[in-house]
Amino acid sequence: MANNKTTETDSSVLTFLDAIVDETKRKDCILLAEMIEKQTGLTPKMWGPSIVGFGSYHYKYESGREGDSMLIGFSPRAAAIAIYLSANFENREDLLKKLGKHKTDKGCIHLKKLADIDTNVLLEMIANHLVHIQKLYPNT
């Protein structure tokens, strides 16, 4: 069975975030990391070369595939900041309507800048996402 491509590394989150060229995106990502850390109590770690992740859990699908993944994460992509959340947490659609300017695909939320969204709604989404993952994987 294939191993996950994206795994936790020992690379420095601060070094990664400080290297973001776009000043607004850099400041937003630093603030986002602080917000998620405060909300979850989890220390940010690098997952692969470009994802800032918080916590981890072990999953096992009915297909037999299993592995470890971050509980929550984000990545400063060229077009937007991608925030990795489950696509199935409680009140997801209602909260997305209240979030502000964003795009979605599967479990990702893409935003250009934090000023475009209601960060309190994002924090509620993060809390609901964590509850959902902990229900699916109780040993998290």
Care to describe what's here?
- There is one protein chain.
- This protein has helices at 13-18, 23-40, 92-99, 119-136; strands spanning 44-47, 51-60, 66-76, 81-84, 103-105, 108-111.
- The radius of gyration is 15 Å and the shape is globular.
- A 6-stranded antiparallel beta sheet has the order 1-2-3-4-6-5.
- The two termini are 23 Å apart.
- The longest helix is centred in the N-terminal third of the chain and has 18 residues, at 23-40.
- It is of the alpha+beta class and 140 residues long.
- Helix content is 36%, strand content 26%.
- The chain is built from 4 helices and 6 strands; from the N terminus they run ααββββαββα.
- The chain has one domain (13-136): Alpha-Beta Complex (Aspartate Aminotransferase, domain 1), CATH 3.90.1150.200.
The total count of strands amounts to 6
Provide the spatial order of strands within the biggest beta sheet. 1-2-3-4-6-5
The tally of helices reads 4
Report the CATH topology name.
Aspartate Aminotransferase, domain 1
